[in-house]
Amino acid sequence: MVQRAGIFPTFFISGFECSTFLWKDKNRRNLIAETQHDRFAWKDYQLLREWGIAVSREGIPWPLVDNKGVYDFSPIDPMIEAMKQHKILPIWDLCHYGYPDDLDPFTDTFTSRYAAYCKAAARYVAARMDGPYFFTPINEITFFSFCGGEWGWVAPYTHTKEDRFRFRLALCKAAIAGVKAIRELIPEARMVHIDPLVQVVAPRDRPDQQQAAWHETYVDTFLAWDVLYGKEHPELGGSPEILDIVGANNYSFGQMEYREHGPHQALPADDDRIKPLCDLLHLVWERYKRPLIIGETSGMNEGREHWLRDVMEESLAAVEAGIDLHGICLFPAVDMPDWHTGEWLHNGLCDISVEGDELKRIPCEPYIAELRRWQKELNRVTTLDENPFSDPVELQDVIDAARRLKKQPDKNWH
User: Fold this and answer.
1) How far is CA 382 from the centre of its chain?
2) How many Cβ atoms from other residues are within 10 Å of residue 26's Cβ?
3) How big is the chain by its Cα radius of gyration, in Å?
4) Any idea where the domains of the chain sit in the sequence?
5) Among residues 11, 81, 213, 370, which one has the fewest Cβ atoms lying within 10 Å of its Cβ?
6) Which top-level group of life is the source organism from (predicted)?
7) H-state helical runs in 253-394
8) Is the dihedral of CA 55, 59, 60, 62 positive or negative?
9) At what angle do helices 395-405 and 304-320 cross, to 10 degrees?
10) Which residues contact 370 (CB under 8 A, 6 or more apart)?
11) What is the pLDDT along the chain (414 residues), one digit of tens a residue?
């Protein structure tokens, strides 16, 4: 008998990079193809099963399946078949930095087309997979609004703070419409809204920038979630039920020193201005009191296992403090290229070895060993049984581990 049922069948989650943006050079990128996840979906999901992970963030590439309102969802068929065979539960990512070429996000047509697409996508997957059903309507609205609205990296290629604010509200409006469209078809569908955890500080020699840095940390970081929740711009239709599950992404470069123009500068690991992850999770929890997951996290290179250890210790400190944490997503499962340089980031559970025209998956054994250690600490499975959906996560085991281990918030990343 489960004392405190979690939302998902496993506490550890993973996922696959699925961006489909128009890049600076005006060419469409498809990270699903660039990582060959479309070719190796069966193998990729077999690996998740072997690692005891039964939940995966998986993309539906909106600009590649929607031709002016005519849909062809066949690109996700290999993923659906692989997930069904290996019994992996998807969190369907419906817009990962990309939208169809013929749409202008600052128009009502964008909203209506997006809502229609969401309903069509939900209908397609519901006809082919059993529930429960989870969706991420628009991935990282806040970051998307920066890289497309102010920095001009991706479409719509605008370059002002005002355009960033407009783009963010347009994305929020579309996301809310998408949630409502999906729930017309699947009323019980759950939504996971992903955005980064951020802390911005002023340069030591620029006290005049302290207010701007504070605003980005405590106001700007939360605005998209606030709109989805209905705290801000309630005319757009947000509510706690729309926000539903909060997915907070945690990367080292999310703690930054303020820059007036362009991306901020990531703080070095030994900077005394870094805040513990536990403290950042508290900010999210106190603001919304909604179920929470770490929507993405990973270290780099040889630091991956150390990063996971730090994230787990901070997460257990947060659980001990009463935060309703339902999972941690180790993202990505398979390595991905840097958007700017094309070099492999070495941030996945698997690295990539280029062998002819194939990208061979090479498991990062130290990272996986650290995952297994924490699965055992939390009394979680290390490999999936025949039916991983038969029982939800027993969150009481996670709470008991937090009480037993008594981890304290720590800003030291070394």
Assistant:
1) 23
2) 9
3) 20
4) 12-405
5) 81
6) Bacteria
7) 277-288, 304-320, 365-377
8) positive
9) 100
10) 304, 305, 308, 309
11) 678 999 999 999 999 999 999 999 999 999 999 999 999 999 999 999 999 999 999 999 999 999 999 999 999 999 999 999 999 999 999 999 999 999 999 999 999 999 999 999 999 999 999 999 999 999 999 999 999 999 999 999 999 999 999 999 999 999 999 999 999 999 999 999 999 999 999 999 999 999 999 999 999 999 999 999 999 999 999 999 999 999 999 999 999 999 998 899 999 999 999 999 999 999 999 999 999 999 999 999 999 999 999 999 999 999 999 999 999 999 999 999 999 999 999 999 999 999 999 999 999 999 999 999 999 999 998 989 888 988 889 999 999 999 999 999 987 765
Q: What is the CATH number of domain 12-405?
A: 3.20.20.80
**275 CB-side CA count, 13 A:** 18
Residue 349 · residue 13 · CB < 8 Å: no
306: amino acid identity, one letter: H
- Write out the two tokens for 414: 């070394």
Please state, in angstroms and rounded to a whole number, the distance separating the CA atoms of residues 180 and 281.
27
CB atoms within 10 A of CB 188: 8
Strand-pairing partners, residue 93, are 59, 136
| 245 CB-contact burial (10 Å; exposed 0-12 / middle 13-18 / buried 19+) | buried
State how far the alpha carbon of 191 is from the alpha carbons of 93, 120, 134, 352, in Å: 10, 16, 6, 31
List, in sequence order, every residue forming a beta bridge with 405; answer none if it has no partner: none
Cα 27–31–34 angle (5° rounding)? Answer: 95
CA 103 to chain centre: 24
